[in-house]
C-alpha cells in the first residue's frame, strides 16, 4: 500500500460530523450525524418514544432500509414548523440525505431512489396563497343562471 492510500484511509476513519437538511411544506428538519451506536433523537426525544405511530414509522423508513449502516451513527434531529406529518417527512428526508452523505454510498442512494424518489429530493409542492376578495385560494362565488 502506498502512503497516499493509507492517509486517505485514516481520514475516512476519523470521527466526522455530517449535517443535512430536509423540508416539507413549512417544516424544516436539521439532522446531525456522528459516529455512534445507532441512537436517533428528534428534538431530544428518542425515536422509539415518538407519540404518533404513523409519523414514527415514516421517520424510521430510511433507517430500516439502511440496515446495519444505521447502527454505526448517532442522529440528532431538530425539527420545527408545519404539522406532525410534514415534520415527519422533513425528518425522513434529512435522515436519508445525511446517511447517504455520511457513508458516501452510491448503493444506498440508489436504494432510497428506488424505494421512494422523494426520500432524497423532497416534495416541491407548497400551499397556494389566498387571493384577495375570496375566502380560499381558488374558491369563487356560486354562479346562478336564473
From TrEMBL:
GO terms for molecular function: RNA binding; structural constituent of ribosome. Residues 132-146 have a biased composition (Basic residues). It comes from the Archaea. InterPro entries: Ribosomal_Su5_D2-typ_SF, Ribosomal_uS9, Ribosomal_uS9_archaeal, Ribosomal_uS9_CS, Ribsml_uS5_D2-typ_fold_subgr. One of its GO terms (cellular component) is cytosolic small ribosomal subunit. Signal peptide: none annotated. Residues 121-131 have a biased composition (Basic and acidic residues). Residues 121-146 are annotated as: Disordered. One of its GO terms (biological process) is translation. The keyword Ribosomal protein applies. PROSITE patterns: RIBOSOMAL_S9 (PS00360). Gene3D superfamilies: 3.30.230.10. Keywords: Ribonucleoprotein, Ribosomal protein. Belongs to the universal ribosomal protein uS9 family. This is Small ribosomal subunit protein uS9.
Amino acid at each position: 500500500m502506498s502512503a497516499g492510500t493509507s492517509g486517505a484511509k485514516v481520514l475516512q476513519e476519523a470521527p466526522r460530523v455530517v449535517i443535512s437538511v430536509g423540508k416539507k411544506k413549512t417544516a424544516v428538519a436539521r439532522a446531525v450525524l456522528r459516529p455512534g451506536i445507532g441512537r436517533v433523537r428528534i428534538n431530544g426525544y428518542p425515536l422509539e418514544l415518538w407519540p404518533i405511530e404513523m409519523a414514527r414509522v415514516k421517520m424510521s423508513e430510511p433507517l430500516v432500509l439502511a440496515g446495519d449502516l444505521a447502527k454505526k451513527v448517532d442522529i440528532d434531529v431538530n425539527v420545527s414548523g408545519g404539522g406532525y406529518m410534514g415534520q415527519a417527512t422533513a425528518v425522513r428526508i434529512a435522515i436519508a440525505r445525511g446517511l447517504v452523505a455520511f457513508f458516501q454510498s452510491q448503493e444506498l442512494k440508489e436504494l432510497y431512489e428506488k424505494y421512494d424518489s422523494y426520500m432524497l429530493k423532497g416534495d416541491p409542492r407548497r400551499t397556494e396563497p389566498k387571493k384577495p376578495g375570496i375566502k380560499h385560494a381558488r374558491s369563487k362565488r356560486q354562479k346562478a343562471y336564473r
